[in-house]
């Protein structure tokens, strides 16, 4: 296989796991408290973090997990809790009077790394996939090709978040609030599914299931 094939393989294998198109709606809901300039800034940072996570775990994942004594199910369980907590917070936002007393710094809370890059987009499933791809294909050319594929996918995600998110800003406040709560419910469900998957894999790992 050529370098091009490995680039395509890295991109195609991770695309459905990251789901950058679906990530636009999630990002729009979770960044609704940010001003337009901050949204664009954090969209770029989200893409950067996604690439860093995929590249690092793709190249060093097995060593990192072994060194820390972690397993993929542990990542899934932790990721499920984080995603679920983010979704629950969107379903039950803080009262308006509490929002008004937030400091300016808190109002610009950075969501680019957590929860957007990790675990919302580059979550346990994606991390597990890049670790498996890197472990199965260990040649230098393969790792370079896969890493370039991850870069292109992160770039696409950043472009979509940067340019598509403003479309949601044209919605009326009531529609944005409804969308936020709907997305919060879906995100809570995603987190629950990730947690269930991690629990299932852990039970298999310890021999409780076959």
Description:
It is a single chain. The chain is globular. Mean pLDDT is 83; it is low at 96-106. It is an all-alpha fold and 210 residues long. It has helices spanning 3-18, 20-30, 36-68, 72-91, 96-100, 104-107, 112-121, 124-136, 140-169, 173-205. Helix 1 runs antiparallel to helix 8 (124-136), helix 1 (3-18) runs parallel beside helix 9 (140-169) and helix 3 (36-68) runs antiparallel to helix 9 (140-169).
Descriptors:
210 residues; mainly alpha
**Helix-strand pattern:** HHHHHHHHHH
C-alpha end-to-end distance = 36 Å
- Beta fraction: under 5%
Number of helices: 10
Give the CA-based shape: globular
Query: How much is the radius of gyration in Å?
Result: 18 Å
Helix content: over 70%
Task: Provide the residue-averaged pLDDT.
Answer: 83
Largest sheet at a glance? none
Which spans of ≥5 residues are poorly predicted at pLDDT below 50? 96-106
The total strand number stands at 0
Can you lay out the helices and strands and say which pair or pack?
Layout lengths: L2 H16 L1 H11 L5 H33 L3 H20 L4 H5 L3 H4 L4 H10 L2 H13 L3 H30 L3 H33 L5
Concise overview:
The protein is mainly α and 210 residues long.
């Amino acid at each position: 296989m050529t370098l091009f094939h490995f680039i395509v393989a890295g991109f195609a294998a991770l695309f459905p796991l990251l789901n950058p198109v679906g990530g636009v709606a999630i990002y729009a809901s979770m960044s609704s408290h940010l001003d337009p300039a901050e949204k664009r800034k954090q969209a770029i940072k989200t893409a950067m973090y996604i690439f860093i996570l995929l590249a690092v775990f793709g190249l060093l994942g097995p060593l990192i997990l072994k060194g820390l004594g972690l397993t993929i199910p542990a990542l899934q369980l932790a990721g499920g809790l984080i995603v679920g907590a983010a979704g629950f917070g969107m379903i039950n936002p803080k009262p308006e009077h509490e929002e008004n007393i937030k400091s300016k710094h808190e109002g610009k809370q950075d969501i680019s790394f957590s929860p957007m890059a990790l675990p919302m987009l580059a979550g346990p499933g994606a991390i597990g996939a890049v670790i498996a791809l890197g472990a199965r294909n260990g040649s230098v050319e393969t790792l370079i090709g896969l890493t370039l594929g991850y870069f292109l996918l992160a770039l696409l995600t950043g472009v979509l978040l940067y340019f598509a998110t403003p479309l949601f800003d044209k919605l009326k406040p009531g529609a944005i609030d409804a969308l936020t709560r709907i997305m919060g419910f879906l995100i809570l469900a995603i987190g629950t599914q990730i947690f269930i998957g991690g629990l299932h894999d852990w039970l298999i790992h310890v021999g409780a299931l076959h």
